[in-house]
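fwd from M.: "can u put these together and see what the complex looks like"

so here's what she sent:
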Amino acid sequence: DQQVKQNSPSLSVQEGRISILNCDYTNSMFDYFLWYKKYPAEGPTFLISISSIKDKNEDGRFTVFLNKSAKHLSLHIVPSQPGDSAVYFCAALTSGTYKYIFGTGTRLKVLA
Amino acid sequence: NAGVTQTPKFQVLKTGQSMTLQCAQDMNHNSMYWYRQDPGMGLRLIYYSASEGTTDKGEVPNGYNVSRLNKREFSLRLESAAPSQTSVYFCASSQGEADTQYFGPGTRLTVL
């Protein structure tokens, strides 16, 4: 049973437009959420995180939104750039467990 | 700073062979993790070490053992490799539980 789901395996966006990547979770005990970006043949790199006490966190072009009642988070990238083309993973954590649960990833392609 | 390093980068084993994957970090982090990534799936936690001297099971620990050799090094051992263990293995480290995880470049393991 997948506790963290990324239902869109891929997404294509024009350069300069907004990219919206979505993530749903089922476990209400999760209280910390993260997004990672992964290029081929490299390890994931951290992008942005959000605690369950917030509903939004921004870092430059990246904004994460959390809707606890819907058990949904999204990553917005504005404006999208060709260098953003990668696989994006969301992950969730219940504090005190160290057990991060990852989604299956969304491959973003930003078209020049 | 090299960050998180993993050796080897690639390995091919025959069923039943054993091997140890090595991981080292130079960021003085307390916590270290081993994940596997399979096609169409997210990263799944195999084992983690919250601090030097402790190790705990993650989501998929069967068939693996780990050793936290010191604060820098965390190794993953396959005692009797099986084809189901064909995967890409990532090591990560973080200062604490909800701190940014830094990932190594991965080890691509094939078990024939």
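replying to her w this: The interface with chain B takes residues 4, 6, 32, 41-46, 49, 89, 91, 93, 95-105 of chain A (CB under 8 Å).
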